[in-house]
Amino acid sequence: MKFHKEGRASLLLVLVFSAMITFIAHYFFPEYTIAHWFAYILSAFLIITILQFFRNPARKFTQGENLIIAPADGKVVVIEETTEQEYFKDKRLQVSIFMSPINVHVNRYPIGGVVSFFKYHEGKFLAAWEPKSSTDNERTTIVVKHQKGTEILFRQIAGALARRIVWYCKEGDKAEQCAEMGFIKFGSRVDLFLPLGTKLNVKIGDVVKGSQSVIGEI
Fold it and tell me: How far apart are CA 6 and CA 147, in angstroms?
């Protein structure tokens, strides 16, 4: 189990804070054992929370030329036909994955190809399950063009707790299926916009794993 690089600053802050409250407990309340234990328990809780949130477990990738792989861990909360307004401007099949704070928060490319479009949007921090979060929240839009010409759009969407979206791509980059393309901190959502007629392998309520679960087939 590896610790993701995006968590280093958070872990450092938690370690400094833990050291401070432990020092305060011992220096100002030397005779109060309960204060010492409170500092120990709070420190342990914060450190464990950060370690589990930024964990980056080794995965055996599921790959296939025509397969669309889950870009994130989480629960499928939306499957519907909708109009994608930003890039395609036509009808698409939307599949949304909600990532809770206990999920692994690494984001990965669902298909291989070339990044044909990228844009970052500032926005609100509505709860990730709100329908308007897809268009109103802070988010990125990434489009990958498959070697056969099919384009798939997916969005990293910040939630009520997620206040930082990280991405590692730009237009023209080569996208390797299941390779890391970003990270979202503290709960979020990822939307996929697929061509109509895409054969889906998931249904609402399914729990999927990034780089392993097959969402559908081109």
Answer: 31
